[in-house]
Design the sequence.
């Protein structure tokens, strides 16, 4: 491939402008600063880039010293998917907990407070909220990232989230269009397919995106999913019928369209990131997200050159690339000029929401006649730990043990998985009261078997479900938190200890 090194001509600058790369480290590398000077207009941040709010503010200031209108994006959904608090767990419950409460004003307040924290650190574009309707309970990648399975509920909370986040001056990026909820495959690993017909898609998947557009979402993220009713040949990210005809035409959306990470296997393993990026821009995308796994100057150069070559060969209309670049600049101008709503900060709103989301069910034999008696002695917490999906990652701690240890000093914990998990947990507990913590028990037969084993020997076991609560409640007390954020763990611990 020919290399175009000047970075100064309009075509090359536009090719850089549409890229949203990541990088490694907690300060900006020299190559990134150089690319910002050559036309790069966006940067994506991940947990690897963040050590503290103060460090993040210094990093974004470093970027703006090179380009004052740079878009600094982050994947900060709150709940299970957090980058700001990747090493401690989030101060905000995720979408599923907010949907369980079903108070749109609370959702707006949570999003506004999250937006204030992002803005204070210099972040002005958030790849959130997830507007996916979690209609498939076996979905391995959406789950508690969704407000729920009811399209009307998801629509009203998506709109509230967009409104709250953007009131803080942070652009919302509603995802994953046209809807990733009815999938049983994670697009980080392979290409999911949704075989619903067009009428079902219109009533179910598209409803929350219509609400987001009506609420003024400034950006929209495409999904790497194949939806034959819309386009039998190309995944949504690479589909003109989906991005241009449906999203722009039928739904009337005029804001920025961002791709999901192009290094995800649904695209990278099928098309390659260079070819995929050209096809995405041609289909109607305006910004190419890359950097969750690929984060270096070589990747930026390859994608820039692929776009320039496609224009010069006639495969990609230059006007389409220029239009995409202008939409990136337009969003940058919005972030620089949007007025921020007045109002007091509510630093505790995430915990308030997590407490309100709890669902406590007395499932044991005595539950009908005797109320649950809070624990006064430190228990043994058995965490039945599934493999985390890539969006959530395995860096972020979850569960109730740390929070219970604050309330009941001496609490011990262990992590278990596999066919022997239940017996191993019983042995480790050694007679202590057991708190079994599960995450999407309904998706993991080994986990359900482990809880069965525990309850046969220890019917007084407390079960805490921190995923989507689909399995029947059981145990002396069953607590559904609707997410595994730190505040969800704290709320559950308070219920267990009667705090």
Sequence:
């Amino acid at each position: 491939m020919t290399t175009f090194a000047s970075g100064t001509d309009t075509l090359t600058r536009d090719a850089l402008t549409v890229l949203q790369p990541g990088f490694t480290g907690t300060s900006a590398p020299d190559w990134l600063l150089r690319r910002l000077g050559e036309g790069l207009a966006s940067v994506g941040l991940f947990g690897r880039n963040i050590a503290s709010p103060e460090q993040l503010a210094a990093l974004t200031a470093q970027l703006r010293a090179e380009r004052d209108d740079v878009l600094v994006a982050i994947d900060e959904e709150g709940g299970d998917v957090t980058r700001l608090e990747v090493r401690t767990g989030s101060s905000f419950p995720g979408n599923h907990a907010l949907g369980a409460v079903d108070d749109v004003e609370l959702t707006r307040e949570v999003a506004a407070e999250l937006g204030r924290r992002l803005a204070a650190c210099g972040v002005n574009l958030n790849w959130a909220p997830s507007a996916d309707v979690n209609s498939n309970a076996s979905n391995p990648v959406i789950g508690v990232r969704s407000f729920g399975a009811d399209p009307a509920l998801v629509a009203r909370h998506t709109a509230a989230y967009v409104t709250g986040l953007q009131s803080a001056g942070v652009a919302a990026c509603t995802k994953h269009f046209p809807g990733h909820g009815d999938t049983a495959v994670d697009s980080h690993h392979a290409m999911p397919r949704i075989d619903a017909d067009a009428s079902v898609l219109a009533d179910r998947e598209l409803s929350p995106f219509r609400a987001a557009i009506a609420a003024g979402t400034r950006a929209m993220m495409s999904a790497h999913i194949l939806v034959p009713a819309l386009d039998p040949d190309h995944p949504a990210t690479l589909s003109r019928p989906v991005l241009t005809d449906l999203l722009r035409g039928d739904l009337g959306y005029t804001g920025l369209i961002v791709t999901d990470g192009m290094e995800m296997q649904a695209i990278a393993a099928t098309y390659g990131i260079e070819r995929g990026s050209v096809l995405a821009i041609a289909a109607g995308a305006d910004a190419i997200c890359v950097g969750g796994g690929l984060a270096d100057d070589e990747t930026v150069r390859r994608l820039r050159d692929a776009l320039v070559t496609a224009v010069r060969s006639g495969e990609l209309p230059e006007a389409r690339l220029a239009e995409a670049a202008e939409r990136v600049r337009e969003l940058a101008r919005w972030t620089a000029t949007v007025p921020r709503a007045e109002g007091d900060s509510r630093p505790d709103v995430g915990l308030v929401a997590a407490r309100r989301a709890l669902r406590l069910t007395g499932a044991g034999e005595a539950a009908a006649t005797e109320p649950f008696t809070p624990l006064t002695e430190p228990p043994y917490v058995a965490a039945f730990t599934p493999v985390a999906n890539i969006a959530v990652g395995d860096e972020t701690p979850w569960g109730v043990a740390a929070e219970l240890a604050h309330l009941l000093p001496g609490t011990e914990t262990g992590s278990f998985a596999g066919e022997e998990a239940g017996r191993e947990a019983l042995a480790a507990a050694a007679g202590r009261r057991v708190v079994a913590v599960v995450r999407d028990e309904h998706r993991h037969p080994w986990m359900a078997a482990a809880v069965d084993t525990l309850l046969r020997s220890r019917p007084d076991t407390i079960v805490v479900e921190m995923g989507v609560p689909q399995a029947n409640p059981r145990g002396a007390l069953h607590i559904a938190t609707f997410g595994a954020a730190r505040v969800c763990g704290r709320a559950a611990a308070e219920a267990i200890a009667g705090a």
User: Anything to note?
Assistant: Residues 318-337 form the longest helix (20 residues).
